[in-house]
Design a protein that fits this description.
Length: 345
């Protein structure tokens, strides 16, 4: 058995247990998003007070904290893109658009289409550009990666992604792209809806455009994109680090990594909490498990991890647990990965 055939059926799992984990809670996402709203509001306005009333030296720190909460919103958008918020499609999509994605300037329809393609073509050349770009360079000895980080921090990557969602070239390959009129109409409708939500957020800042930009727009366009690049390198950059070309989604899935799990973790708990807050909210750090079964909602991924982790390690050889199950996002991004040749088949 090799990486070309890797999927959850190889792991000989108890199907009844797996299906039980696929059950959705209609209440849990709404409770979580309300708590996320409250925490985000507290952080944003505390950050404003901390920087303006005490010292602007705190600004670099607070914008990353805000970006972490915006990343948490994106993770709930991600759940909606898989239909994991509610079985009712209208409720699910309302949550994925009005309740989450419009708050951070994400086109829900474009994100959903691109993310479905990401799962169908994980780590292959058919994967959407918006995903490939996150781990286009994985070697920290390559000076070009720092240029990408600079573009992230300056907001240039965010602009590129913003205009690419909904018009990715992968759609053309799959005959899914709309005609120009419908695409323009869809883009315009998104901008109107997003602007309405952003106007509401703007009002929370008492229509102070400087604070609105400093404590909401820029964290989403800059630090958030930097954190998403670290996440992309960690989750899906392993094939490039190994010099392996993934020919299909099974191979891409084989090299997808999880972090901060019971199998491998930082000894310093503060690092674990920091990475979960900045990048790994809502159990997205169980990313290998998510790619094994995208029907399992975030609140059941830890249980799924316990069910599959030993079998996953047997599949990729126990001595490689530090490759598939890495300590954390930053350690995985910075590490020089290695797998024995007999495993890369």
């Amino acid at each position: 058995m090799n990486s070309k055939n890797y999927n959850r059926s190889d792991l000989d799992l108890d199907l009844l247990k797996v299906r039980k984990l696929e059950d959705l809670s209609n209440l849990r996402p709404w409770v979580d998003v309300i708590i996320l709203y409250l925490i985000t509001i507290i952080i944003v306005f505390s950050s404003h007070f901390l920087t303006t009333q005490i010292n602007y030296i705190f600004y670099p720190m607070v914008i990353f904290l805000i970006a972490g909460r915006q990343g948490a919103l994106l993770q709930l958008v991600h759940e909606a893109s898989h239909g994991l918020i509610n079985k009712n499609i209208k409720i699910n999509n309302f949550f994925g658009s009005w309740i989450t994605s419009y708050l951070i300037g994400v086109n829900y329809q474009g994100y959903t289409s691109a993310h479905q393609s990401h799962h169908a073509n994980t780590s292959t050349d058919k994967e959407p550009i918006s995903d490939q770009e996150k781990y286009s360079i994985v070697d920290f000895k390559n000076p070009k990666i720092y240029l990408l980080f600079l573009k992230d921090i300056l907001g240039l990557t965010a602009l590129k992604v913003f205009f690419n969602y909904g018009s990715d070239k992968s759609k053309k390959k799959n005959n899914l792209n709309l005609n120009k009129y419908d695409a323009l109409k869809s883009r315009f409708a998104f901008l109107i809806k997003m602007s309405f939500v952003q106007l509401f957020i703007f009002a929370l800042f008492n229509f102070d455009i400087i604070n609105y930009f400093l404590f909401w727009i820029y964290p989403a366009m800059g630090p958030h994109m930097f954190l998403m690049r670290i996440r992309g390198i960690a989750e899906h950059g392993l094939p490039k680090k190994l010099g392996v070309i993934s020919k299909n989604s099974n191979e891409g899935r084989y090299y997808t990594r999880s972090f901060l799990t019971q199998k491998n973790y930082y000894n310093f708990k503060i690092l674990t909490l920091a990475e979960k807050f900045l990048i790994g909210s809502y159990s997205v750090h169980y990313h290998h498990e998510h790619h094994l079964n995208a029907k399992i909602p975030y609140y059941n991924l830890k249980k799924f991890h316990k069910l599959v982790s030993e079998k996953v390690l047997q599949r990729v050889k126990p001595e490689n647990n530090s490759v598939i199950y890495e300590k954390g996002y930053f350690s995985a991004a910075l590490s020089k990965a290695y797998l024995p040749k007999e495993i890369i088949t």
